Amino acid sequence: MASPDSRQSAAAPVLDKDGVRLTVEDAVATVTLTHPAKRNAQSPALWRALAEAGRALPGSVRVVVLRGEGKSFSAGLDRQAFTPEGFDGEPSFLDLARGADDVLDATIAEYQEAFTWWRRSDLVSIAAVQGHAIGAGFQLALACDLRVVADDVQFAMRETSLGLVPDLTGTHPLVSLVGYARALEICATGRFVHADEAERVGLANIVVPGDQLDATARDLAAALLAAPRDAVIETKALLQGASGRSYEEQRTAERAAQARRLRDLAGLGD
Questions:
Q1: pTM value?
Q2: What phi, psi does 51 have (nearest 5°)?
């Protein structure tokens, strides 16, 4: 029987560089982190490749599955970033810290682009997470709409213990999922959140044995494809905007979205 990794890589890659591989099969794209020997530690080159993967998605894609090869989803930022030499061809983080404020801000904004496209309204993204998902790895899992996790998963936000803050878009979804108080406690202590707690507090949609992780993510992707695309897009937009609307504003948004769907079903859309 083929291994999960070989099944996921059967399609010819659309992109395969800097520790990121993108494959597309019909309406499902799979983004795989491909440096298992380094526990899929992250670097600026990997972030640029992730951003490029988002730009390279064909318009036919409706669901994106994010996964990591090996025992860990992602152990977080490669510690080489904090050395004086940094990464080859990249400014070291220490050099960035010594530079102009606008350059530092623009650089962090560029890094964040790897984490922002997963919640596009025309897609549903699923993170399939096993083993360690630490720091930037935790934030990458949080960037997705849904999380299927193995029973050995260990989430942790370690930035604060390093004298930093989580800056790769993870704070907003973390607070949305678990609330302010628990998010603060998770971030400030840097402790591990294991599978049972992750499911209980809403970080994980599904927990399964590790050998079932890829199959479960594929099954969830298939279930998401069962509904018409436009209805899923409208529903996702309604839910994404709900926290910023009052009850009455959400009622109005629901009516407008339903009117669009009914007109489309009746063949009266634009």
A1: 0.92
A2: -60, -40
